[in-house]
Amino acid sequence: MANLIEKAKNYAMNRRSFLGWTASVTAGAAAVITLPGCGLTKVDSTTANADLANMEGEWRPVACWHNCGGRCSNKGYVVDGVVVRQKTDDTHPDSPDFPQQRGCNRGRSQRMQVFGVDRLKYPMKRKNWEPGGGKKELRGKDEWVRISWDEALDIVASEINRIKEKYTNRAIFASGAGDFGRVLSLAGGYIGSWGTTSWGSWRWGPEKFGMAEGFNEQSINDRMDLRNSELIVIVGGNSAWSAGGNPTYHYLQAKKAGAKFVVIDPIYSDTAEILDAEWLPIYPTTDHTLFLGMAYTLLKEDNPATNPLIDWDFLNKYTVGFDTEHMPEGADPKENFKDYVLGVTDNMPKTPEWAEKICGIPADKIRNLAIQIARTERVALLTAWGPARTHNSDSWPHMFMTFGAMTGNMGKSGCMTGVSCHFATANGGPSLVKGGSNGLPAVPNPIKETINDTEMWLAILNGKYTAGYQDVKDVNIQMIYHGAEAHLQTRSAQEKGIEAHRKVEFVLSVSHFLTTNSKYADVVLPATTEWEKVGGFGSPNNRETLIFWRQATEPLYEAKSDVRIAYEVAQRMGLDANKVIPFDEKQQFYNQISGCKVIGADGKTMESLVTLTEADIKEIGAAGKPQQGRITYQELKTRGVYQIERKPGDNLGFIAYEGFVKDPVANPLKTASGKLEIHCQALADFVKGKGFTQIKPIPTYNPSVEGYEATFTDFNSKTKCEYPLQVINPHYLRRSHSIFDNNPWLREAWPNPVFLATKDAEERGIKEGDTVLIRSKHGQTLRPAHLVEWIMPGVVGLPHGAWVEIDEKTQIDKAGSDNMLTGAIPTGQGIGAWNSTICQVEKWTGDPLEEDAKWPLRIVL
Fold this sequence. Notes:
Layout: H1 2-10, H2 15-23, H3 46-54, E1 58-61, E2 75-79, E3 82-87, H4 105-108, H5 111-114, E4 124-126, E5 144-146, H6 149-167, E6 172-175, H7 180-186, E7 192-194, H8 205-209, H9 223-226, E8 231-235, H10 239-242, H11 247-256, E9 260-264, H12 270-274, E10 278-280, H13 287-301, H14 312-318, E11 319-320, H15 337-342, H16 352-359, H17 363-375, E12 379-383, H18 396-406, E13 416-419, E14 433-434, E15 450-452, H19 456-462, E16 464-468, E17 471-474, E18 479-482, H20 487-490, H21 494-501, E19 506-511, H22 516-519, E20 523-526, E21 535-537, E22 545-550, H23 562-572, H24 577-580, H25 585-594, E23 597-599, E24 606-608, E25 610-611, H26 614-620, E26 631-632, H27 633-639, E27 641-643, H28 658-662, E28 676-677, H29 681-690, E29 712-714, E30 719-720, E31 725-728, H30 744-749, E32 754-757, H31 758-763, E33 771-775, E34 780-788, E35 795-797, E36 806-807, E37 812-813, E38 837-843
Parallel strand pairs: 6-18, 7-15, 8-9, 8-12, 9-10, 11-28, 12-13, 18-19, 19-20, 25-26, 31-35, 32-34
Antiparallel strand pairs: 1-2, 2-3, 4-5, 4-20, 14-23, 16-17, 21-22, 22-27, 23-24, 29-30, 31-38, 32-35, 33-34, 33-38, 36-37
Helix pairs in contact: 6-23, 7-23, 13-16, 13-17, 13-18, 16-17, 19-21
């Protein structure tokens, strides 16, 4: 260590000089320290580069903490507090049964985030800010002034106290409050936000009719059993882009085992191509009609004696509400699903021809798919969350599970129906290994009010919000707090959100960069990244893996951890800061490690994972008792990943609903009937209780607000309206939601166009690379056009998460921010409904856009 320190002192470009140099770098010079593959060094520092590569360092597991859907192994070669190289999982040989946890381009570029020249370096305030807001209209345009931490903490503490004394604590709105919420709760509370964000209508409603809890990751079988499926139908899932890690690899193992794939999606995705899947292009917001058309086909063509297509034994034994003979007690017999499909109750049979007019899939293909599913013994019906991120989709999960019940694809090997998404893509089941809690006791928020994400900006502007059925409350928000979540960027109605931020008296943002949240704030506090913190675990991981990371570098510039910021604000406010953070980050780190659990040899009980000695606890700098576990702490901190080795036929497999199907009396579902409720009054009551819109107890089709039908002024004649195109927001390899959008390596590798079908472009006189205006009734944005054959005509693909960049001359966003096109439209369960947006695309007549890889980074101070 002494030798390393001596080298660091003499090093031509050591960490201290690097930080000092980057602190004064200008936006135009940003590229000179972003050389791929050679660390963060000056282009002309060839001697420094060579010295850096030859210096003694250490491979450490470092965090890849962003919410891409995967939690992969990320390792950095650390020299004098700088990560100069990265690699991924090499802890064991790769195999299908025991795959490595390999990182992707995003994790491999993470050092460009941690050591980026656009990191927020110091506390800042707006030049024209003053208590009460000052020139509030300048938020997002004002200059920034560097201030000390003392001044920053004084401003924050005094503004919180001033606002709560003048308006009460109900005037404080904290979206994604995190650690700071502990301060606000101790100070009397705040109003929070709620929403379904990624999950759409899969978030809460499905539990009402009998689905497994836990964001639905336990609704499908595990990856080993997936290999037993003969047919795998994926609805709206593109794991190759939006589920990091091994999920697509797991699908490939099923394909190698003989499974055929069908992908139902508006785009012919990389996933469909990799799996050589049959592609059925479908209009967004209409998946429900496809499944109704398939249900009709089975009902009309089923003959138990000569052509059995419906699993009547499953329906009769495990469900209620399918037909008049199996209705739940007290329900109207006429409100059964079978009669609805056949048109008995509404004179509208849900034929494949009816479905074709809405979803766009030809009727013969609807029939063929329905019969193919029904005649295949082992089928996996899988969907991601995307099709449920649409207005009025509250009955869609209900419909999907009902069709799975009709075909008996639940509770058996190779048979499953449910969500295959995010960290549980292609691999359902409870975690076999998990990290411990940090041990911080909860600080309850005295205020129980929350505002739905789709309504929160309107609530700030209009002073009212929906609190429940026929319950509208007044509210007077005067302070907005932003923590880790990028709500101004990633929630609906961004244009209204910007307007709301320019109305209130105080906006505080804690961030790593000048994100959209921070750009429209009054005071910005620089936070440390995970690489600068003591350490921790990626969570959630896939069910077999625990990802561990530890500190790579000391906090850069004047950044502080979120926990430390919360503590110091509490002190300034005169609160008992020890109630906010009763013990330090090292103790929290120890608590997480000591609390790690792993499945035991019996495949049922959990036991301690990590062996901790007195020396280990002293090294961590915490208080605790030694313990015995599966692996040593020294091994964990070196490897950075613990993974359970799986084998076909082991006792660690998972089949969703297996216990229920084997014995529904002993293992009832959590519903009033104990069965899967195809007629579910609890779901209808739950949606009604949110106060926005209502649904029926059976899975009827409810056209989406701003869905496919809304692209017509008259649907029957198919007369197009002012906004004839539908917008979807693919999760794109350049970003994880909105994180990484400022990463120069990823900007260069993954341009950010709008994807247009060649047919739609030709009709508008648009050529490849033309700058186009995308406009909806809610806002406008510009993007270069990329013409493709793999997106359905009538559908526009605008990748999710680009940081908004308003052109002050035109007042049009030029970055392709998807939420400039969405509106404040609360429906059903308060669904985040980004895939139900309609627009028009036109050739832009102004100056063409420069590639955003060439745009200057948001470097301040």
